[in-house]
Amino acid sequence: MTTDLIDTLEAIRAGRLTSPQALSAALDAARSPACHDAFLQRFEGSAVQPPEGAADLPLGGLPVSVKDLFDIAGQPTPAGSQVLRDAPPAAQDAPAVARLKAAGGVVVGRTHMTEFAFSGVGTNPHFRVPANPAATDVPRIPGGSSSGAAVSVACGAAFVGLGSDTGGSIRIPAALCGLVGFKNTARLTPTEGALPLSTTLDTVCAITRSVRDAVLAHEVLSGRTVSREARPLPSLRLGVPSTQLLDDLDETVARAFERCLRLLREGGARVEEVPLEALQGLSGLQASGGFAAAESYAWHRELLATQGERYDPRVRLRIERGAGMKAWEYLDLVKARRAWIADMERATGGFDALLSPTVPMVAPPIASLAPADGRDPAADAQRDQAFFRTNALLLRNPSVVNMLDGCAISLPCHVPGELPAGIMVWHGALRDDTVLQIASQLEALLAPLRGH
Asked: Which of 6, 43, 106, 343 is deepest in the core (most CB within 10 A)?
């Protein structure tokens, strides 16, 4: 793993490195074959110069990447699509982009994403899929929808990959690529200037290389200071929901997750399995497509009427599910979500955090989920079935936190020789600091096993 943001900042402030040197190395990484497909637009020359006095700013003049759905002044915001490729340029930076720049971050490019952020797989038929840098056997998916954000960070082209998380779009690629992805409580970061998928569930957040980098990135994006006061492990009570979230784990993920639980128990933490029956009602809440389908259809309906054939068919299918939702069904969903959150808060209130595998699988091969090409209808149907089955599994665990209006962090828990697996530390709204503190302690427990 390339050195993290905090280590690099310390090297700059100690005089062992300069911001331009670090930025130059990142730009070289961005041009490398491994990272090339991570960017839909890569910036060069005067566009990637550290600001004056960068070394004294929180991000120190170091590189960050921006998911293609955020406004950058003077550029269109295509969101990984063809239909918005020639849209009018943004008048100003999205607040999240502006905050990164004000903190000394240098934007090195716009990153690959699932079209309109509507899948956890990370494929997009309009652009070549960036292969997961952690896989050396066969090309594997990076996860999505913030696919390029993850690959840019994993390859060393950026220290912070700005993205969005509506059902896991930060945590899924972080888990599959061996990175850290923090989804804060949604209200803590501004979503203006980011093309919406679901105004109810969207969260602006980032992928980093370590938990401490995630803390710094969150402080910049939220404009708040995170408490660093960690409680001793023996004082922590951690819940492991057994309903659904532990189903269908592949061998690598199951082994890595049990390893984490064992380390926490050996450190003195109380780790308890909890049924959390309320999770059984979640699929019923979203049977008609949920918030994402209804709210994305409201945004896309005019474009679909005039340019629907230019959409990714898999994305279009999911958006158009929202066309059939009636007003009373949407209002019932809002009400039912409030009641479900109350049930979850009652069931989890006695725990300092919950622990789950971020996703139940390691990254599958890209070829198994390739878009339909029209040459063999039977093969196309099989790939579509595999895609939607994989997408549902990838979204299953992380999407719980979005519906909960909660916060969660995925951190890598695999060891050398294994494909990446992530553990998710999570809880309800505004428990962000506690979740980050526990993740930091778990990262330290895992470090010797992971070779750090």
From this structure: 106
Q: Which tokens is 72 given?
A: 């950058």
CA distances from 383 to 254, 389, 410 (A): 26, 10, 28
pLDDT digits (tens, 9 = 90+) for 103-112: 999 999 999 9
User: CB of 414 within 8 A of CB of 447?
Assistant: no
Place of tokens 């082209």: 157
Annotated active-site positions, please?
A: 67, 145, 169
* The token pair that represents 328 in the structure block: 């009373």
Is 415 domain-assigned? yes
| Span 211-269, pLDDT tens digits | 999 999 999 999 999 999 999 999 999 999 999 999 999 999 999 999 999 999 999 99
Q: How far is 366 from 114, CA to CA, in rounded Å?
A: 14
Q: What percent of the chain has pLDDT over 70?
A: 100
Q: How many alpha carbons fall within 13 Å on the CB side of residue 115?
A: 23
CATH number of the domain encompassing residue 74: 3.90.1300.10
Question: From CA 227, how far away is CA 367, in angstroms rounded?
Answer: 44
Query: What one-letter code names the amino acid at 438?
Result: I
In a domain, 41, yes or no: yes
How many angstroms separate the CA atoms of 452 and 439, rounded? 16
Length of the chain as a residue count? 452
Residue 31: count of CB within 10 angstroms of its CB: 13
